[in-house]
Amino acid sequence: MTLNIKNNISDLSRLAPFMEEMAETYGIAPDLAFKINLALDEAMANVVSYAYPEGTEGEITLTADKEDDTIVLQITDEGAPFDPTKEGDVDTTLSVEERPIGGLGIFLIKQMMDTVAYQRIGNKNVLTLTASVSE
């Protein structure tokens, strides 16, 4: 399954129907579908918001496949290189006032998914997220 969107916040509304179709197609349990949806929403919002310079139109491609008992999600864009796997985890023991702004989304993605991997292939960012569908 593939979803192509522009780097426009309004295009993110197309993610929920895609996620619903993916959950139905691949038989994903509701609790796992919720986690995947949360991680995808955060990852896609980050790409839409930060990958491309302001005023530049870009395309983001999301593919979803099921390989054995694993859902494999791949987000590809031609924005600025950014490897979220290199970002340190946020210190969630700090109070909201003490915690620096940013980083919670990447932390959330890492918590929700089994694996998070990044590659820069040519001029493209490729973020791969996996989640096991087995009990």
C-alpha termini separation: 23 Å
Largest sheet: 5 strands, antiparallel
Shape: globular
List the total number of helices. Answer: 3
**Uncertain runs:** 99-103
Number of strands: 5
Major β-sheet strand ordering: 1-2-3-5-4
Strand content: 25-35%
Q: Report helical residue fraction.
A: 25-40%
Radius of gyration: 15 Å
**Helix and strand pattern:** EHHEEHEE
Counting helices, strands and paired strands, the structural category is alpha+beta
Mean pLDDT: 87
Brief characterization of the structure:
This protein is of the alpha+beta class and 135 residues long. Helix content is 31%, strand content 28%.
Task: Walk me through what this model shows.
It is built from 3 helices and 5 strands; from the N terminus they run βααββαββ. By secondary structure, the protein is an alpha+beta fold. Strands 1-2-3-5-4 form a 5-stranded antiparallel sheet, covered by helices on one side. Strand 2 and strand 3 form a beta hairpin.
